[in-house]
Amino acid sequence: MARPPIETESKRNRLVIFRLTGPEHDRLSEQARRAGLPVNDLARRLIRKERKRLVVQTYRHCDPAFLKRLDRIGHNLNQLVKSAHIFGRISPLIEPLCQTIDRLIAEALEEYPDGP
């Protein structure tokens, strides 16, 4: 099935090219990075805004090292639970692991009180 045609007024068929100084470009690039948008999309949103301020909703990203560490802990916990099911006993490592998980969750909540 073919894609429906785009209405004439919705087509982006005009090209705008302009130069920026180094600091202007850096500022626009930084704003686009923080907004999670390509520079051109941010510029397009800026000219289309009807208010004096453009509001772009952004989301914080957790530190990849933190996520990797949490993943490893989850993997270890999974292995311990499997072992407990197979052998019918709980490893003495469970208690320190659960304390580590609780501490990491508390740290994450302090860093991102409104969620990641």
Q: Please provide the count of β strands.
A: 0
What is the domain tally?
Answer: 2
Order of helices and strands: HHHH
**Low-confidence parts, pLDDT < 50 over ≥5 residues?**
none
Mean pLDDT: 79
Anisotropy-based shape: elongated
Share in helix: 55-70%
Distance between the termini: 40 Å
Tell me the structural class.
mainly alpha
Strand percent estimate? under 5%
Please outline the major beta sheet. none
The number of helical segments is 4
Radius of gyration: 25 Å
Account of the 3D structure:
The protein is mainly alpha-helical. It has 2 domains: 15-58; 64-111. The protein is built from 4 helices and no strands. It has helices spanning 22-35, 39-48, 64-87, 94-111. The protein is elongated and about 70 Å long.
Strand and helix layout:
Blueprint: H1 22-35, H2 39-48, H3 64-87, H4 94-111
Helix pairs in contact: 1-2, 3-4
TL;DR?
This protein has 116 residues and is mainly alpha-helical. Helices cover 57% and strands 0% of the residues. It has 2 domains: 15-58; 64-111.
Features:
single chain, 116 residues, mainly alpha, 2 domains
